[in-house]
Amino acid sequence: NSPCLPENSTCGALVGSNGTVCGASDVPASPAGSARLLLRTPYPNPATDSVSFELVESVGAEARIEVFAADGRKVRSLAVRAGTSSAGGASWDLQDSDGRRVPSGVYSVRVSVGSLEESARITVLD
After folding, report:
1. Residues whose CB is less than 8 angstroms from the CB of residue 60 and which lie 6 or more positions away in sequence, other chains included
2. Through-space distance between the first and last CA atoms of the chain, rounded to whole angstroms
3. pLDDT tens digit string along 78-122?
4. Cα 113 to Cα 36, 61, 76, 81, distances in angstroms
5. How do residues 54-67 score in pLDDT, each as one tens digit?
6. Alpha-carbon span 62 to 5, nearest angstrom
């Protein structure tokens, strides 16, 4: 029952080194009444000036994007207006909550809508 086999993968394709990777656009739509959030890979990554986040699909009035430093400290929070069937997004200017440019390093990003969460990593370069 491997999730990498076509009959078990979300996009119906073989996933892994011998197959294809499912993209966000390959995932079937959520049934009515269910909730799902998909975050495309933040870009550019590595980032030098800013980084953009695109929510492919979200359910709820608002999505929250939180950025954490490697030590677990919350660096910045961003709110994204999201609709049931429309994509939304946000941009981070690589500044902390006090308006200071963050140093080079790897940052964790957590996107949440209600009880749904997804995460990604971003490398920031000077």
Report:
1. 35, 82, 113, 114
2. 45
3. 887 655 444 567 889 999 999 999 999 999 999 887 778 889 999
4. 9, 8, 17, 10
5. 876 655 557 788 99
6. 35
